[in-house]
Amino acid sequence: MSRHPLIACCLLLAGAAANADSGTRYYFGADLSYVNELEDCGAMYSLRGENRDPFELLHEQGANLARVRLWNDARWTRYSNLADVKKTIQRSQRAGMEVLLDFHYSDDWADGEKQLIPAAWAHIEDVDALAQKVYEFTFQTLQSLNAAGLMPELVQVGNETNGEILSTLEKAGNPINWERNAKLLNAGIRAVREAGAKASVNPRVMLHIAQPENVEPWFAAATAAGVTDFDLIGISYYRRWSSELPHELVAVIDRLRHRYDADVLVVEAAYPWTLEAKDSMSNLLGTSTLVEGYPATRDGQRRYLIDLTQQIIEHGGVGLVYWEPAWISTSCKTRWGTGSAWENAALFDFGGNLLPGADFFKHPYAYPVEVELRVDDAIFEGKDIVYLSGDFLGEIVKSISRESSDRSIVTRLMPGRRIRFQLFADENRTKPLLKDSHGNRTQVTATVGRERTVIELGSHLR
User: Fold this and answer.
1) What is the pLDDT of residue 404?
2) Could you tell me if 329 and 282 are in contact, meaning their C-beta atoms sit under 8 angstroms apart?
């Protein structure tokens, strides 16, 4: 009997799609929260000189998800309330897109720098009572949407919740009280679950953090505090506000999707197509957001979005949502000035014509395939748990239990990739279990097939 492990690749399973994992849902989305307001201000959107409905136009270009924000009671605007959200969801559904509903739990912008408690809840100091308000607002909103046939497929419990939610400007930047924060977040999550269980659509739950350098520490703290019931991890990525380059972003994605049982989606991103402006309002994205090799041109915007999305997919992410592609300049005034702070980073030019950057929605991306690393019973002789380390896992070490029904690790990797890995008897990785073809207990290798790949890890002897 051989003392060497058996490593075999099964390259075909019935129903597997060539060059893509057919079981993974990918999202190529657009946050269209501003569209109703902009059209009321006279904005028009066109393709090759023909005025078009922006929802229908972007869906035709390949967008399959519309994101829409909801404020609790924003007295300073008549948009992004429940009535406006219902209109946006109706338009999205008619166009053929799924919907991501983004609860800000605020009367104003909630973001990575601040999480302002709604005025109607500001007097509530008891955390249980405040959690009940979060539950009721979330549940009743979804109940109302479901009754109108507008239940979203995805729900964000909070927007860029880097800091403690339902807080104040004075407390922004303070350390998070995780006992309080977890109770509030879990109340929102429970409302989504319970509303979805009774609805025509059962939404997936997303938690959302701004900038990749903040995501891993936040989720480590959140899960330690008991916030564990989520389906997606959402990340905002703007180079202007991030210390990390795109290759660092996707490394974070790789680690997150192997550490947590959740998909990872870049739920906000954008890139300028020009550094010029149409109006007097200062633009938010300028030279500080540019990445080497991608100038602020029509072609630069297009290549950046396609290349970034491909990197996200290759590293196991499930897509990208463009933030406010339709926020073009109009004559309307806001608190910040007249026009738009984003017209140079929209997906429409100064005349409302669709830009080549919208090609990222329908680009023919290369997709990973499902890879299963399956541990043979013999490996577990005298052991209850073994530990898998590999170059495709980053710094993550995955434990595999004898008691597990499948005794395997499932991931997504690009076809043709040669991976290096090792099984260990201990978490400190000092006792390797697999030998290479020369009998050495170093890392062993395997190549990912063109379709679903199964790698059997086993040996007849210790």
Assistant:
1) 87
2) no
Rg (CA), the chain: 24
Cα distance between residue 186 and residue 189, in whole Å: 5
Tokens representing residue 394 in the block: 């980053």
Catalytic residue among 37, 98, 164, 268: 268
Task: Tell me the CA end-to-end span of the chain in Å, nearest whole number.
Answer: 11
| Alpha-carbon dihedral angle through residues 206, 212, 215, 217, given to the nearest 10 degrees | 170
Residues of the chain with pLDDT under 50: 1-19, 460-462
| Residue 268 among the catalytic residues | yes
Residue 146 three-state SS: helix
- How crowded is residue 337: how many other Cβ atoms within 10 Å of its Cβ? 12
* 311, 247 contact by CB (below 8 A): yes
Residue 205: its H or E element: strand 204-210
Q: What is the pLDDT of residues 47-96, one digit of tens each?
A: 999 999 999 999 999 999 999 999 999 999 999 999 999 999 999 999 99
Cβ distance 228 to 186 under 8 Å? Answer: no
What is the length of the chain? 462
Q: β-strands 453-457, 418-424: how paired?
A: unpaired
Are 331 and 272 contacting, i.e. CB atoms less than 8 angstroms apart?
no
If 0-12 CB within 10 Å is exposed, 13-18 middle and 19+ buried, where does residue 405 land? exposed
Alpha carbon distance 267, 210 (integer Å): 9
Domains defined along the chain, listed by start: 9-15+367-457 (2.60.40.10), 27-361 (3.20.20.80)
Pair type for strands 319-323 and 333-334: unpaired
Q: Which of 322, 345, 103 is nearest to 208 (CA)?
A: 103
DSSP character for 213? Answer: G
- Integer Cα distance of 132 and 122 in angstroms: 14
pLDDT at 437: 72
Q: Which of 241, 359, 354 is nearest to 307 (CA)?
A: 359
Total Cβ atoms within 10 A of residue 326? 25
232-to-139, 156, 316, 318 alpha-carbon distances in Å: 19, 9, 12, 9
- Which of 98, 160, 324, 343 is an active site residue? 160
Please give the pLDDT value at position 381.
87
User: Annotated catalytic, 395?
Assistant: no
CB 381 within 8 A of CB 34: no
Are residues 423 and 387 in contact, defined by beta-carbon separation less than 8 angstroms?
A: yes
Q: Which residues pair with 31 in a beta bridge?
A: 67, 323
* One-letter amino acid of 254: D
